Amino acid sequence: MADPQAGGAPLWRLILVPSLVTLAVTLLRLWGELKQWPTLLFNPTPGGGAALVGITWLVPVFGAWFALKLARNEAGVRAGRVLAISVLALGIVFALHFWVDSIKKEQSSLGVLGVFAVSSFLGGLVGLSAWPALGRALLAYGLAARVPVALIMLAAIRGDWRTHYDQPPPDFAYIGNLIVRWLWIGLLPQMTIWLAYTVIVGSIAGGVALLFAGQRAAPRRPLVRPVVPVRRPPAAAPPRPVLRPPPGRT
Q1: What span, in angstroms and rounded, lies between the C-alpha atoms of 77 and 206?
Q2: Most exposed of 106, 171, 172, 196 (fewest Cβ within 10 Å)?
């Protein structure tokens, strides 16, 4: 499917290399945790412990890269507007979360996760409007990145791999059913919280990239070669007719 605002190039082509890189990092992270490699790089504790090897850090990198690629073919996008709406979206996520928390201070772990998922979903919708073309690219990239993680989490929960992919957050309510547990700690966060993170943080990075590039998104103009007029030689004058006397006259 071609994105007309991405210069007519298919969206999958734009996100292909970033998605493959992200998948490689995901598999490396899983292998490192299973082999108990250094926790600074591969932390198996719940939440991942901000390990250095992880796909979270790739979002701002690819967000900036998408923005600079898209900026070559789309006019009228301002870096300031992208940044302002993206920061607003981030504020909405935390404002709704803290507002609900202030109203109902005693919440179960499932309730906290549910509220965060809803606030992330709403904030992500706002983030998509910062720059729709960039938002679509980040959303597609986010799905390509997070669907494999959700599937790995399902396998990890079933196999009790003792990685951050199957460990619930601290003080999280115990859920005996494996599928229900996966829905709560796997599928729900990946498809709401982390997708919103990808769109919002990626858009902020994209706005910063445009700002530092000192440019607005403007279409590339094709190289037009000057037309050199060809001078033709003047047409030769037609020969004059030769007047001959009529026959019989001398």
Answers
A1: 11
A2: 106
